[in-house]
Design goal:
652 residues; alpha+beta; Triger factor/SurA peptide-binding fold; Chitinase A, domain 3; 4 domains; 4-stranded antiparallel β-sheet; 26 helices
């Protein structure tokens, strides 16, 4: 939703700016605007400082986003530190705060009116069901606005202060970009680079030209496993016992009392009925005398729009609205007292004097028990099942407090208890297949516990609860050789063949370099030379069958140069770059002009990144890595000495 808030940029340069400076807010959150450094700061840039709590919020936002991209795999704070994510986030926030502070100091500061206008514009671009505007009057509703921001852990003060930064930066960089246009040679070089064509002659080495490797020994396989340990090491697996209290599973066991259905129906009869609706034309008059004239003309059958224009007014058309939807109570009373086609006398309403004409009446329909019964029964059944599931959790707590372990307490409470086969953190078994019923929340809880540890009962919503116990932890390790011998043997032999083919390719390429013709060398191994002409970087996608390595080698070679490279399929190629030709001059001229705006934006992006870095240096922005790690729950005393020293060294 926050991404939708930031759609007010209009110019191409503002888009570039957002890509560089503002989009990062979508990942790291709204920037801090607390004035003056405090004792608890993680980032300090001039008069700005970011607290530990604010850093933790941004870190959590980034971590959740990264976990979703990784398919739900949990990222612990310790793992984030190991991967360097904490440093990356801290550096990005330091750059954000630095450029915002420097622009503020320069004096680029949007007015309160401009900020208010942008807020209204952004809010109006949100989906209709979340816009903070009164559904009847269309006026901006500050209560709805506050609630909308609260859903995103924001306040108007924080949001609008961040918005000031965004507007200031957009104006500053847009102004800096006016008239910026790179020399034509920038895009001309790109055009020449892209349209240059190359002619290739090459042959594929026949696998039969090299000796087939013998079957590997156990020692060779063990060495191969160690060499590729990163790819072959199995993740940590855990055997889990999970107790579930599920209202959904209990629903079939619930019997709905017919008397309760009737009672609920009677209570909701008014809301279940279809209200009568009316369509009407309303003309607001400046005074009673004018209203009387309007009423007379409408009674004679004149078109409401024509009558309204005669008095310099607009007609308000209301279509199929119930009485409760009309904003003026007195107008609503009059409208629902008239017959279809009737015109009211002047109405001195809460919102002024007006005249209405009822154009259509759609009768309401009373509530029908037969039609409402399935929905009411489903609702009552769900409520009863949720209550039953909650009662089970209380029975479980009583048994658990009495000394029963998770499995025994769950059985006593009548809950579903399952003990899994070994599962990884991603919820898959040892064959890589997903295990049904293991949600990311369950796995996150399970992998945060030690062996033998049990979680508290956790509510998953709508009457669903769970608790988990870790029965066994199988540490991450290389698999036993016997369990992977066939696959490992195949991989080893494939690897041997690749090495032998590569050596053969280099040997044959050397012969060509010494003076033998490509055709002669190809024939010596049963190969045939193929020629491909006119390959450019623009049309390289059309030649993917050559293989990525061949294309890279070809574009990196000089005319007449011979090379060996891996082919798209299993095998190797010996190639020779026969010619390099410049592109068509007319086409180069077209592309030069077409790509000039892109080249300009590329330079502008570089300038923007340089501006952020310069702002950080100018303000002597400080970061406290040690405090940032403590904020996200990392025990810095347990870090390796070099890591802990680096963290303390950053605190200034």
């Amino acid at each position: 939703m926050l991404a939708g808030f930031r759609t007010f940029a209009k110019s191409p340069f503002a888009v570039v700016l957002f890509g560089l400076l503002i989009v990062s807010f979508a990942v790291f959150g709204i920037s801090d605007v607390f004035k003056g450094p405090t004792g608890d700061w993680v980032v300090s840039a001039g008069s700005r400082s970011m607290s530990s709590a604010a850093f933790k919020a941004r870190f959590d936002n980034y971590r959740k986003d990264a976990e979703q991209r990784a398919g739900g795999e949990p990222i612990t704070p310790e793992a984030a530190v190991q991967r360097g994510l904490d440093r990356q986030i801290l550096n990005e926030l330091a750059l954000q705060e630095s450029i915002a502070e420097l622009i503020h100091k320069i004096g680029v500061r949007p007015s309160d009116k401009l900020v208010a206008d942008v807020v209204h514009q952004q809010m109006s671009q949100l989906p209709p069901n979340v816009r903070p505007f009164d559904a009847i009057t269309g006026k901006f509703d500050s209560k709805l606005y506050n609630a909308l921001l609260a859903q995103n852990n924001l306040t108007p003060t924080l949001y609008e202060a961040s918005l000031r930064d965004e507007i200031a930066q957009a104006h500053f960089f847009s102004g800096a970009a006016i008239g910026l246009r790179v020399p034509r040679v920038y895009s001309a070089l790109q055009a020449a680079y892209g349209l240059e064509t190359r002619d290739l002659a090459a042959f594929v080495i026949n696998p039969a030209s090299v000796a087939q490797p013998a079957a590997p020994t156990d020692a060779q396989l063990q060495a191969f496993m160690k060499e590729h340990a990163a790819q072959l090491t199995l993740p940590e697996f855990r055997v889990l016992s999970i107790v579930r209290f599920s209202a959904k599973a209990l629903e079939p066991t619930v019997t709905v009392d017919a008397a309760e259905v009737q009672k609920t129906f009677d209570f909701r009869k008014d809301t279940l009925a279809t209200a009568e609706t009316r369509s009407l034309a309303q003309i607001v008059a400046p005074d009673t005398k004018t209203a009387q004239l309007i009423a007379q003309r409408l009674t004679k059958g004149e078109v409401p729009a024509v009558v309204a224009r005669a008095y310099g007014k607009d007609v308000v058309m209301v279509s199929d609205k119930p009485k409760s939807a009309l904003p003026d109570r007195k107008v609503a009373d009059a409208a629902f007292a008239l017959a279809a086609g009737q015109v009211s006398a002047p109405i001195a309403g809460d919102l002024g004097i007006s005249v209405i004409k009822v154009t259509k009446i759609t009768p309401g329909k009373p509530a029908d028990l037969a039609a409402a019964r399935p929905g009411i029964e489903a609702e009552l059944r769900a409520e009863a099942a949720q209550a039953k599931a909650y009662d089970q959790t209380q029975a479980y707590e009583d048994a658990h407090s009495g000394g029963s372990d998770l499995v025994a307490a769950g059985s006593k409470a009548g809950a579903m208890v399952v003990t899994t086969a070994p599962v990884a953190a991603q919820g898959v078994d040892q064959t890589g297949q997903p295990v049904p019923g293991l949600t990311p929340e369950v796995m996150k809880a399970a992998f945060a516990l030690p062996a033998g540890g049990e979680s508290e009962i956790t509510e998953a919503g709508k009457g669903e609860y769970y608790a988990v116990r870790v029965e066994k932890i199988i540490p991450s390790a290389l698999p036993p050789l016997d369990t992977v011998r066939p696959q490992l043997t195949q991989a080893w032999m494939m690897n041997q063949m690749v090495e032998r083919l590569q050596a053969k390719a280099e040997e044959l390429a050397a012969r060509v370099r010494k003076g033998e013709s490509l055709e002669t060398v190809a024939a010596s191994v049963g190969g045939q030379v193929q020629r491909v002409a006119g390959v450019s970087r623009e049309n390289a996608q059309q030649h993917q069958t050559l293989g990525r390595d061949v294309l890279v080698a070809m574009f990196g070679a000089k005319p007449g140069e011979v090379f060996a490279a891996r082919a798209a399929q299993f095998g190797f190629v010996v190639g020779k770059l026969e010619a390099v030709r410049p592109g068509d001059v007319t086409e180069m001229a077209k592309i030069t002009e077409a790509q000039r705006p892109q080249a300009t934006m590329g330079v502008f992006r570089d300038l923007g990144e340089a501006a952020r870095a310069a702002a950080k240096v100018e303000l002597k922005t400080k970061v406290n890595l040690d405090r940032a790690r403590q904020a996200i729950g990392v025990d810095t005393s347990q870090l390796p000495k070099d890591e802990a020293g680096a963290a303390k060294g950053k605190a200034k």
